[in-house]
């Protein structure tokens, strides 16, 4: 029987908008929802639309953000000239916009709605493409992220008595905000697989960053060298995540599927394809069933190639979550081409594939210490695995 799946959506989520020309434009999410609808992914009986989406209430936001920061966001919401560098507001990355507080609260409300539907048993999986704002810090906005919807949802689950939540972040940027908020909380395992902080914002997320004194081993970071492609990226995912999920035994799996790891993304330097991303989503789905009894909250995130990458990748995510995976060589519907041409004056890609067929060798079958990706994976395993009674180093392989 298909899993019951809730897809969170409300047109007002597009109000989270930093203005013309900003990379995190709402059109990216709208196009993804449109393409998913064109494939009929919302139609099956086991798929429900979770709507309307109301803004998260202040108490839920104050669970993870400082009162002074929320107050600053409120003030910025009605003052176009508001600037507070310490709070990260009014910067190039996070310019203020009208009703910013309500728009950001609604994104948090969307992830909360998904978490609630999973916790109540209404659905097994919930998807919120507008969510995944993993850089927001307790006291400041950062990297296009005002309120950390992920942390708001996780904190709510903990407040309901959930004892173990695992968070896996495959966005190309380090999930620093979520890590910071749960740094010293052993109930939350945060795993981030990202491009090395040596070459990419936010400059944090080294393998040795493993959690606070009360939660050693609860933060996990895989820092991959710039230029890493499908094989290395998937090898890292498989070489770190399943062993830790098996040891940690989460009751809920929360995942962030930013797709800025793609080789066409303008803001980063990994070389992952839509095919690699689709395979990662398939693995995360499988692990949600194997390690968290199917309780899976899947969120959006980064991804700044609005037409060629985000819609296809996230349509694959929804297709995977709803149990109707799309064959890679499937053509993109003509109606979507027409929509993109009209909306953006651009040509949409022809097929749901980049023509790649990644086949990563399992890390456990051996590794090459001279290989920079293997060295990155090993550094993380050596820093964290012993805390779970796991062996960091599999047999050597040349
Ligand atoms: Zn990102």
- Provide the residue-averaged pLDDT: 96
The CATH architecture name reads: 3-Layer(aba) Sandwich
Class based on secondary structure composition and strand pairing: alpha/beta
Name the ligand types. Answer: zinc ion
Low-confidence stretches: none
Report the CATH topology name.
Answer: Arginase, Chain A
- Principal-axes geometry comes out as globular
Helix and strand element order: EHEHHHEHEHEEHEHEHHH
Note the beta-strand portion. 5-15%
Instruction: Supply the CATH superfamily name.
Output: Histone deacetylase domain
- How many helical stretches? 11
Distance between the termini: 44 Å
Topology at a glance:
Blueprint: E1 5-8, H1 27-38, E2 47-50, H2 58-62, H3 67-76, H4 100-119, E3 125-128, H5 149-159, E4 165-169, H6 176-181, E5 188-195, E6 219-224, H7 230-248, E7 252-256, H8 274-292, E8 296-299, H9 310-321, H10 334-344, H11 372-384
Parallel strand pairs: 1-2, 1-3, 3-8, 4-5, 4-7, 5-6, 7-8
This protein binds zinc ion.
Zinc ion (ZN) binds next to loops.
Keywords:
single chain, alpha/beta, Arginase, Chain A, binds zinc ion
């Amino acid at each position: 029987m298909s899993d019951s799946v809730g897809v969170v959506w409300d047109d007002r989520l597009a109000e989270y908008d930093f203005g013309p020309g900003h990379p995190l434009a709402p059109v990216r999410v709208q196009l993804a929802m449109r393409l998913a609808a064109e494939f009929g992914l919302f139609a099956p009986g086991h798929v429900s639309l979770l709507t309307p989406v109301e803004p998260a209430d202040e108490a839920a936001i104050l669970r993870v953000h400082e009162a002074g920061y929320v107050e600053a966001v409120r003030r910025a919401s009605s003052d176009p000239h508001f600037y507070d560098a310490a709070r990260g507001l009014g910067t190039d990355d996070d310019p203020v916009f009208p009703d910013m507080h309500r728009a950001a609260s609604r994104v948090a409300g969307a992830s909360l709605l998904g978490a609630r539907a999973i916790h109540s048993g209404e659905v097994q999986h919930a998807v919120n493409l507008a969510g995944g704002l993993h850089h927001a810090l307790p006291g400041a906005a950062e990297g296009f992220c005002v309120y950390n919807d992920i942390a708001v949802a996780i904190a709510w689950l903990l407040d309901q008595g959930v004892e173990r939540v695992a968070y896996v972040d495959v966005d190309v940027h380090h999930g620093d905000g979520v890590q910071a908020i749960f740094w010293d909380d052993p109930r939350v395992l945060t795993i981030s697989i990202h491009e090395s902080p040596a070459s990419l914002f936010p400059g944090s997320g080294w393998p040795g960053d493993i959690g606070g004194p009360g939660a050693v081993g609860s933060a996990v970071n895989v820092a991959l060298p710039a230029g890493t492609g499908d094989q290395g990226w998937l090898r890292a995912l498989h070489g770190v995540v399943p062993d830790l999920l098996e040891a940690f035994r989460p009751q809920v799996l929360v995942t962030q599927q930013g797709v800025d790891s793609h080789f066409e993304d303008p803001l980063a330097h990994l070389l992952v394809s839509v095919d690699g991303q689709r395979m990662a989503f398939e693995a995360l789905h499988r692990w949600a069933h194997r390690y968290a009894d199917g309780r899976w909250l899947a969120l959006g995130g980064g991804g700044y190639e609005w037409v060629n990458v985000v819609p296809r990748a996230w349509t694959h995510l929804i297709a995977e979550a709803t149990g109707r995976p799309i064959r890679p060589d499937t053509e993109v519907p003509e109606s979507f081409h027409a929509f993109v041409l009209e909306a953006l004056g651009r040509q949409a890609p022809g097929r749901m594939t980049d023509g790649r067929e990644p086949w990563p060798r399992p890390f456990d079958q051996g590794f090459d210490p001279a290989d920079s990706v293997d060295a990155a994976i090993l550094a993380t395993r050596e820093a964290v695995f012993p805390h779970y009674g796991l062996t960091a180093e599999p047999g050597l392989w040349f």
